[in-house]
Amino acid sequence: MNIGFVSLGCSKNLVDTEMMIGVFKNNKFNIVNNPKIADIILINTCGFIESAKEEAINTILEMAEYKKTGKCKILIVTGCLVERYKEKLEKLLPEVDVFLKYSDYAEEKGNSAQVFEQLIEYIYNIFKNKEKKPEKTSLDFMQRVITTGDKYAYIRIAEGCSNRCTYCAIPYIRGAFVSRKIEDIVKEAKRIVETGRREIILIAQDTSKYGKDIYGEPKLAELLQELCKIENLKWIRFLYTYPEDITDELIEVVKNNDKICKYFDIPIQHISNTVLKRMNRKCTGESIKSTIAKLRKEIPNVVIRTTVMVGFPGETEDDFEELYDFVKETKFDKLGAFTYSKEEGTPASRLKEQIHHMTKKSRFNKIMQLQQKISEENETKNIGRELEILVEDITKDKKYYVGRSYMDVPGIDGLAYIKNTGKDDLIGKFIKAKVIDTKDYDLIMEAEN
């Protein structure tokens, strides 16, 4: 039987999908990328904000068409959207054969084996393979099938979130923050490196709080030090650190270990103390500014990425102008913005002073236009700079190799295009190259001789 997977949303959701692929692979299913030839299609959905919900519904309807035009007999939908709206979806989408809530198989509950055994038995019955019995049906980080190519992999170090920001539905979908043990993460990282991958990316809803729930204090710095001991591991990244938990110890560990990319992804959301308080953020505008200043002082050439939210309920013109001026002054290396999305069941959805959608759109456009100018300035400053590049691909016309520096997270940031001299095959190698030009968010480079 052929089974195809569609993973929507964040990289944390992708890890779930990769573990599900592992379950079906261990049960001798053929994993296929073409939905036309899939007997079974499984969609892992995101339900974080309105646009993600719309994407999930559209994808489900698109995949359901293969029950008419392809081989598909079973359509399975799971993930965050199902966790929030299973009963509604069952009525709305009769095309779907099975809806699985995330909480049915969440690893911290330890019942994934039972859930996937029942699912596979259901599939066997549909295809009249009753004599077969499922085996190896637990979701397992060590059995996951990595789908991000052979250069890097994500490692999820914790699940859920306990921050309770008033706009965010994650705690209601994924539950409270639960860390994995250091030894389990290191074991998974070693296995990934043994497959030839040289870069690992640590992810969680808030990596800076890693370990606090099981060790009594944050342990991200200690985890990073343990991972640095792994032979043949070249780059370590960690994403989504909240400003209030970026400690001096963490800064020192990043500063003093060559394997750790000098890159901080800090989702500040806003700078106005009034807005931050309404968001139930644990930091202030002053502490955010202090953290950024400290990072830039202590770590040479550190890259700081952030996300900001505009149009939060009650955000005044003065609040927005304060954010705009802060972005203009700070000149973040990378910045993404999004408009506030009123999410059902969250405290912010009940706040008065909801902002008109046209005002939100206008503020979003102003921030992004400003950041585009800042990004152009930042990129121009890199001309003449020598950087180490992980070469991952080559363009179709063979004129350029394509890779990334420590400054760029895959799928989020820009790329490096290195002129192909035809001397050596560079794919999979780390090389030194000099920036000779820029284009949009990308670097044009020449390899060092």
Mean pLDDT: 93
The main β sheet shows up as: 5 strands, parallel
Kindly, what is the distance between the CA atoms of the first and last residues, rounded to a whole number of angstroms?
51 Å
Q: How many helices does DSSP assign?
A: 15
Q: CATH class of the largest domain, please?
A: Alpha Beta
Q: Structural class, judged by helices and strands? A: alpha/beta
Estimate nothing, just give the exact number of structural domains. 3
* CATH homologous superfamily designation of the largest domain: tm_1862 like domain
Which word captures the global form? globular
Q: Which CATH architecture of the largest domain is right?
A: Alpha-Beta Horseshoe
- What quaternary form is this? single chain
Rg calc: 23 Å
Strand order of the largest sheet: 2-1-3-4-5
Helix content: 25-40%
Structure description:
The protein has 449 residues and is an alpha/beta fold. The chain folds into 3 domains: 2-141, Rossmann fold, CATH 3.40.50; 153-381, tm_1862 like domain (pyruvate-formate lyase- activating enzyme), CATH 3.80.30; 386-447, OB fold (Dihydrolipoamide Acetyltransferase, E2P) (Beta Barrel), CATH 2.40.50. It has 15 helices and 18 strands. The chain has a 5-stranded parallel β-sheet, with helices on both faces. The protein is globular.
